[in-house]
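Consider the tokenized backbone below.
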């Protein structure tokens, strides 16, 4: 008797097609999970810094003049998940009690705003393809309710 122990070309093609279909379903879910994790991390970063600013205010009775790297362990502002550079060099101090203008930034040195007049700390967010989605992400990450872009 002559028994074959190999797969036919049709069987191999079917397996490749099934693997391709599964990959097409699973890969976008991983990408969405990574994006969602970045949004959560940015939101938590803003909350942590706001808490540190609040602690400073409770202790000293005034808003800090700048974000102090020594508030964090290890020293330095936690990394913004939307960028790759060192965070401590990217805080722009704002004077005045007016609301910050919502802006997006694909690149550039300023990724955080700190308003020393009222203790507000915000982060820029990446462009989401349109103004409404970018504003929604900005509001979500910064725990605010800005109305227009």
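A designed sequence for it:
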């Amino acid at each position: 008797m002559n028994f074959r122990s190999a797969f036919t070309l049709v069987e191999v093609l079917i397996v490749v097609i099934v693997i391709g279909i599964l990959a097409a379903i699973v890969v976008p879910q991983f990408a969405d999970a990574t994006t969602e994790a970045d949004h959560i991390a940015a939101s938590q970063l803003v909350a942590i810094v706001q808490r540190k600013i609040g602690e400073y205010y409770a202790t000293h009775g005034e808003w800090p003049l700048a974000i102090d790297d020594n508030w964090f362990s290890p020293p330095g502002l936690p990394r913004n998940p939307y960028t790759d550079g060192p965070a401590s060099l990217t805080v722009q101090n704002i004077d005045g009690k007016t609301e910050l203008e919502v802006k997006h930034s694909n690149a550039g040195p300023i990724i955080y705003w700190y308003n020393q007049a009222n203790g507000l700390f915000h982060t820029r967010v990446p462009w989401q393809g349109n103004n409404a989605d970018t504003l929604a992400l900005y509001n979500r990450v910064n725990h605010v309710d800005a109305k227009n872009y």
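The first helix runs from residue 9 to 60.
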